[in-house]
Amino acid sequence: MRERTIASHFARAALGGARRSGYDYSGLLQQLGISPELLEEPRARIAPEQFTRLLQGLWAALDDEFLGFGPTVSRPGSFAMMCHALIHCRNLDKALHRGLLFYSLFPDGPRLTISREGEMIRLSLDDSQFRDPDHFLTESQLMVWHRLGSWLIGQRILLEQATFSYARPEHGAEYDLLFSCPLEFAARQSSLVFHSRYLDRPLLQDERTLKHFLQRSPADLLARPDDGNSLSSRLRRLLSRDSSRWPDLEAVAAHLNISPQTLRRHLREEGTSFQGLKDQLRRDIAIYHLSRSDLSLQQIAEQLGFSEPSAFHRAFKKWTGLTPGAYRAQEN
Q1: Does a cis peptide bond (omega within 30 degrees of 0) precede residue 218?
Q2: What confidence tens digit (pLDDT) does each residue in 166-195 have?
Q3: Which of 17, 101, 234, 247 gets the most CB atoms within 10 Å of its CB?
């Protein structure tokens, strides 16, 4: 499956702490095959695998799992030790409380708290002391705890709401991909809200599965976006089953047993459109093949349903700011 690509913004944001500390990361980018020119293009995207390796490289170079954004340093291995501390807990409730207790032992570490609001649970993050102008550490902390919890119980924890202590950022359109739930910006605190029923779920993981999980985590938790259960996410999964035959909106609406008008309205409420979803999927499939050199530009164009390579060139430049040839040249 061709995975969702990562907006270049997140790579630039991840590099912010390294840049502030004076670390020259040009060698790391070269090693990963990420060109500085690609990162400076606002519409550009990178593959999840590249983003995973970028985060791992930065953690090792900076000796800090918080990448210089936190009020204190988190030495590499801290996340792994926290996971070992909670893996034998009876249920998710115990695991989350033990994990948060682990980080509370570090002076000036990020403060996370769990509170109950009726049938809902709010996981709150105090990000007031972060040196994080792009909000990378806030996003990362919330995503890691949500996805770690989901992994521990073997099912996705459906989020009811995500709130953020800052105004909607320029890359706010990516937040549906990151959190897949109703969002509130300029809130009193940054937090995630989910149903309390998940807290009683037993942990389905053990030391054996944890060893495999930690080989690439928490980087993989950040690099592999959570599709969620929104209509746009369901449509994307439906469309990705066969990229050589793209159903029209009427066919998709019939498949979902709703009217085309209702489908358009729901997508509009989620801030997207049917054509926009198809373009995003085409973009990600194109980047998948361009980064692997397994197909010619004409073959990629044909697979994406373009009758002429020139039409593919124009569309790809509109999506990413680069032509397919220029993108492949920078990737290889």
Answers
A1: yes
A2: 999 999 888 877 888 889 999 999 999 999
A3: 17
User: What is the secondary structure of 248-298 as a DSSP string?
Assistant: -HHHHHHHTTS-HHHHHHHHHHTT--HHHHHHHHHHHHHHHHHTTT-S-HH
Q: Which of 248, 318, 258, 311 is nearest to 278 (CA)?
A: 248
In residues, how long is the chain?
A: 332
Q: How far does Cα 42 stand from its chain's mean position?
A: 17
**3-state helix vs strand vs coil in the chain, percent to 5:** 55, 10, 35
Phi, psi of 122 (to 5 degrees): -115, 120
Q: Which of 48-52, 86-90, 94-98 has the lowest mean pLDDT?
A: 48-52
Separation CA 332–CA 328 (nearest Å): 6
Tokens read off for 283: 């973009």
When pLDDT is cut at 50, 70 and 90, the band that residue 269 belongs to is confident
**Tokens standing for residue 66:** 């918080």
Tens digits of residue pLDDT in 37-47: 888 888 888 88
CA of 328: how far to CAs of 148, 244, 263, 294, in Å? 34, 22, 36, 11
